[in-house]
Design brief:
By secondary structure, the protein is α+β, with helices and mostly antiparallel strands. 33% of the residues lie in helices and 35% in strands. The chain is globular and about 50 Å long.
Length: 278
């Protein structure tokens, strides 16, 4: 009974703290510049990983003693999620008035092919149908070869309900028949003012409540071991936590991208497994 009471108290405090944080805040130039620096350094690392001698999947870069164990876990159906931090020439990248959330997740889909996997990964018009409720609306805005531009209306409910109208530039790359990558870079993130009127007014760009300012995802797909490994690396930017509330809010706020990554990879595995053989 005491444990339940404690959990209820912490939950209530967290909800109240989120209300305190709900006021409008502005994405400052120095915050956006820090994110751009972090994203550029991350991309440089990704280029190295995608070289012929690099670790295509994150688990391939683990210490030798951990690699076999990680693959065993993946083949048992686990989704492996790791927290990352990019440094610039060994130095920590400071993000004033903001928080960068950087995670990578890997899953394995047994008994499927790359063609089955790509059929789901590239079905941008049906994102809302396939990944509801987190995606409320989806549509492809443009397509030219390996390049796509898409719109997603994102839905999130955790103590409070939030919606975002977002757009992304997506670039696909084929290394060979067994390896593909997809980089999705947000070009527009706007918070919906009233979630009960999703097609209505948006809060001023970068002067909203700061729940999401940037969202980049880097996907990798590798067919081997009788199935397809799917990896998703997420890089997002949100407002900082007010002084004095970090002990309460930081664990909650930083857990959201991890939990979302788990759901996305688990749902992707389910969807691909339902695809007919191609």
């Amino acid at each position: 009974m005491m444990k339940r009471s404690l959990i209820g108290t912490v939950t209530t405090l967290a909800a109240l703290a989120l209300c305190v944080c709900a006021g409008a805040t502005e994405l400052k130039h120095k915050t956006a510049a820090a994110f751009n620096q972090y994203a550029a350094a991350t991309l440089a690392g990704l280029v190295n990983e995608l070289s012929p001698v690099g670790a295509f999947l994150y688990v391939d870069g683990l210490p030798a003693a951990e690699i076999a164990h990680a693959y065993d876990d993946l083949k048992r159906g686990e989704v492996l999620v790791y927290k990352l931090e990019t440094r610039d020439q060994g130095r920590e990248i400071s993000v004033p008035d903001g928080i960068i959330h950087h995670w990578v997740g890997v899953s394995f889909i047994p008994g499927v092919t790359m063609a089955q996997t790509l059929a789901i990964a590239r079905d941008y018009d049906r994102r809302a149908e396939l990944y509801k409720p987190e995606v409320a609306v989806s549509r492809m805005l443009a397509h030219n070869g390996d390049d796509y531009k898409i719109f997603l209306r994102l839905y999130q409910k955790k103590f409070t309900t939030i919606m975002f109208n977002t757009e992304y530039d997506i670039h696909w790359r084929k290394f060979d028949a067994t390896k593909y990558t997809s980089d999705s870079i947000s070009t527009r993130v706007a918070e919906v003012k009233d979630v009960n009127k999703p097609d209505g007014e948006e809060l001023p760009a970068e002067k909203d409540r700061g729940y999401l300012w940037r969202l980049n995802t880097y996907w990798r797909f590798q067919e081997k071991d009788g199935g397809v490994y799917v990896q998703c690396e997420v890089l997002s930017l949100t407002r900082d936590i007010p002084t004095g509330l970090g002990w309460l809010l930081r664990p909650l706020v930083t857990s959201l991208p991890k939990n979302s990554l788990n759901r996305v990879l688990g749902r992707t595995r389910e969807l691909v497994s339902q695809q007919p053989k191609q």
